[in-house]
Amino acid sequence: MLQHFSQDYVEAQTRFREAATKLGFSLESHSIGVSGPDGNELAFDVACSHGDARRVLVISSGVHGVEGYFGSAVQLGLLEMLSQCPDKSDTKVILLHGLNAYGFAWDRRFNEDNVDPNRNFLLPGQTFTGSPPGYAELDGFLNPQRPPSIWEPFTAKAAWLIAQHGMKKLRGAIASGQYDFPQGLFFGGHGPSRMQTILQQNMPRWLAGSEQVIHLDFHTGLGAWGTWKLLIDYKLADWQREVLGRFGPDCFETNLESDIAYDAKGGFGQWCIAQQFAPKYVFGCAEFGTYPSVKVLAGLRAENQAHHWGSPGDAKTRRTKRRLRNLFCPTSQQWRTTVMEESLNMIGRAIDTLERSWQTT
After folding, report:
1. Is the predicted pLDDT of residue 39 greater than 80, yes or no?
2. pLDDT > 90 fraction of the chain, expressed in percent and rounded
3. I want to staple 20 with a disulfide (CB 3.0 to 4.6 A). Which of 47, 72, 277, 358 is the partner?
4. Is residue 13 packed enough to be buried (19+ CB in 10 Å), middle (13-18) or exposed (0-12)?
5. CA–CA gap between residue 115 and residue 117 (Å, rounded)
């Protein structure tokens, strides 16, 4: 399973395209209009199998660019699994690979406009304005306008803020999405991103004729090392709770009930449910834990400083980006083996639910 992890965006994209084509999936690429480090235009890829269009499994990766290293590995693992059992499943499979191609290619969590795509999928009536209570007061701490330095007392100040405000309140203030600080962390944008526009235009076509859809969107960075939860950012109907429960006991949490997540605005899951792509649509953000949240936030902060106020090619910037990549896709063989096994087991349960268990819902 370790062989499915790629060294960079170009390798991941090439391997994904080759594996999907070999398996007979239809393949299309969607340019985002910007270039990668090699000067070539960036795009995300969509691969669709030719299974029963009424039952659809959607697997998406790389909404948070740098997390694409993990999500791409999962998708390559699934393609290998399907190639070994070509007649096992009749479910249609749709793979959205490296959705935030810019973040993936440049080792950023955010896109070409510094937008966090998972804060950009606003619902009707919501506006690209405002910030959570407390974010403005934290802006100087979160987004210092200077290159990163190893001498900054980030951990000590973060510990003081946690003691003052409590972890849950502070997490909500910082990470739930803001629309006032374009160079800041967790910026939701001033309008729909290129990614959202492409998905809006094409998902009805990819999901045409679907009746039952399970959509798993793979992420990393929240939760204990190597563990996972399905995080839900929309109001669950009873039948959706039943379907999600088939992934295991205590396997899912809504954002308001969660100890690790937060009530975020502009999430991909909320948006997919609101679009009503299918009569029955279940979305789960498959979140796999890596490092403690303060360490992850420190890495995001440093990379954002390097991106806006550092020198693109210097050693400090490269080191900061390597650190960010490891925070969201650890090089630990034990971590990678564990999360790959858990991910493919999760996908197997999704396929089984679509093909057999869901008939009673």
Report:
1. yes
2. 79
3. 47
4. buried
5. 6
* Whether the predicted pLDDT of 254 surpasses 80: yes
Q: What is the mean pLDDT of residues 86-99?
A: 88
Give 312-317 contacts, CB < 8 A, sequence gap 24+. Answer: 316/147, 316/148
Q: What is the mean pLDDT of residues 76-85?
A: 93
Q: How much is the average pLDDT of 234-259?
A: 86
Closest CA to 283 of 187, 207, 360: 207
pLDDT at residue 257 in the model:
57
Q: Which residue in this structure is represented by tokens 């020198």?
A: 311
The domains found in the chain, sorted by start residue, are 2-122+186-294+325-360 (3.40.630.10)
**Quick check: 260 pLDDT over 70?**
no
